[in-house]
Amino acid sequence: MTKRKKMIFGGILGDNIVLSGLMVISPVIICGDTLKNAEALIYAFSAITFLSVLISSFVPRKLPYTAKIIIYAVISALVYVPVKLAAIEFYPDSIERIGIYYPLLAVNSLIVFQTEASFFRMKKTDMIVSLIFSIIGFDIVMLITGLLRELFAYGTINSKIVDINTLTAGLAQPFGGFIFLGMMCGAYRFARELFSKDNSKIRSGEDVSDK
């Protein structure tokens, strides 16, 4: 994968915001114990982050860094309001359960950090693609976490009872979420390292054959 492709598409596997960057992990650990909660968080994170970063990309680059960060925060706060109102209609129970972690998504790392460090250094089209894949990277982790924790903690999927013999109630607790996320991070980094080694062997074989 070229450097440009890695920069754009790396948000899912190469540099997953949660599993690699360890960003936005609090909602995953604390609130990602059911599929419904995961869906509510995915909706909010995706909508708030995409719209906030896209609108913020039009802020003049010549402004002082501190001023720009404040403006980004104000923009994301304004975006948060209609997103929250819609969420109350579609995910009323989850919103109450998620609590303070919902508004915290309005100041997540992609908005306040990655904007200046990465996104706004790209061309507009590259930025949008990279942003989308970074959001999808979070969404996948959130979805898997919510699904598996609900299954093994409550014996349900989307509140429907599933025939499962062994339940681990601790997975529903924050410490269970922390342990589960740690296991996912370990598996992710092992797979990424294995994939990198395979790619290195393939490139080495190509280099030898060219000589």
Short description:
The protein has 211 residues and is an all-alpha fold. The protein is built from ten helices and two strands; from the N terminus they run αααααααααββα.
Word description of this protein:
- The chain is mainly α and 211 residues long.
- It has one domain.
- It is 71% helix and 2% strand.
- It has 10 helices and 2 strands, in the order αααααααααββα.
- The protein has helices spanning 3-9, 25-31, 35-56, 65-90, 92-98, 101-104, 109-112, 114-117, 124-154, 174-210, and strands at 156-157, 160-161.
- It has a two-stranded antiparallel ribbon with strand order 1-2.
- Strand 1 (156-157) and strand 2 (160-161) form a beta hairpin.
- Helix 3 (35-56) packs antiparallel against helix 4 (65-90).
- The longest helix is centred in the C-terminal third of the chain and has 37 residues, at 174-210.
- The protein is globular, with a radius of gyration of 19 Å.
- The two termini are 22 Å apart.
